[in-house]
Amino acid sequence: MITKTYSFEKNGKQNDVYTLRNANGLEADILTYGARLIRLIAPDKTGFFSDVIVGCKTPEDYYGDNPYFGATIGRFGNRIGGGQFTLNGNVYNIEQNEGKNTLHGGYSANFDRVIWDAEIDGERLVLTHVSPDGAGGFPGQLTVNVSFTLTDQNELKIEYTATSDKDTVCNLTNHSYFNIGCQPTVLNQTLMINSKQITPVDSELIPHGEFENIEGTPYSFLPAKKLGQDMFSDAKLIAQCKGYDFNYCIDRFGKALEHFATVYDEETGRKMDCYTTLPGVQLYTACALNAFEGKRHYERYCALCLETQGYPNSPNCPQYPSTELKAGDTYHEITIYRFSVKK
């Protein structure tokens, strides 16, 4: 069931919150500003329901500065080095909002800062945004639909579709911050990521077409381990990021929806299994989130993000899976977060 549960005005425009409920008592709140997941309650092993999403205290607060809490990210999730890429022989200069680089689509046309149109379609909440040709420096009018479904299998399903009237690049993701244990940090939660390689980054977190084997290293979560086990390792990238903030290449067997990660909290018994059609996932452990006043006081490592994606800087790295979207073709990707308990 989906209902509109809250509305408010900002800058003369209406913002809405929709609540999705399933037969088992799970609920998810979606805010049209930024097409954001702002609340998701799930049971623990005793049957007690808690919010597993880290974020702002009120829907209105998402208009303030925050680290992309729960937002749909576009036109290009993650980083593009130098704020520039070449497509069909044409050089496109896009907005630089992280030094000389572009992060999460820039600063003027990024999807987390617009109000999306919303429509209830059966059990799906469908949000739509049309990004005009040239927005943020990207070519093509890009029409994007993002749907959220909360199934009776306790799955939050996020489905992305996009089309463009010109050849462009497209890389969409969701930037939810999860803490399934609802504790001050996620350091005691266990994580498995089905990946044997990462795309290593420079000092500005930009990859340059390389792959790094991580088997047996502090970067690996195969087999599963507690997030805190190597969080303070002197391994180069972990030390640089003060945690984890880089792309894992998912060990895929095809192009279909595949299981790629599991998060488990022993204290509450909550488990989150993650599935996607995309080739990569950015593990971010809230390394830079410090002293933020939201639903509660948040410090570093208060959450983890599993942002499914095409590889960062892929428009400049032909070695990586392509994120090019041809005019008339359809971008279509799915990510699922499935919740269960282990007693």
Walk me through this protein's architecture.
With 343 residues, the protein is an all-beta fold. Helices cover 2% and strands 43% of the residues. It has one helix and 31 strands. It has one helix spanning 236-241; strands at residues 2-10, 13-21, 27-31, 36-43, 49-51, 53-54, 72-73, 79-80, 84-87, 90-93, 102-103, 117-121, 124-131, 142-150, 155-164, 168-169, 173-174, 177-178, 190-193, 195-198, 212-213, 225-226, 245-250, 258-264, 270-276, 280-284, 292-293, 297-298, 305-309, 324-325, 330-341. The strands form nine sheets. A nine-stranded antiparallel beta sheet has the order 12-13-14-15-31-25-24-19-22, with no helix packed on it. Strands 1-2-3-4-5 form a five-stranded antiparallel beta sheet, with no helix packed on it. The longest helix has 6 residues, at 236-241. It is globular and about 60 Å long. 47% of the residues are buried. The model has no long low-confidence stretch (mean pLDDT 97).
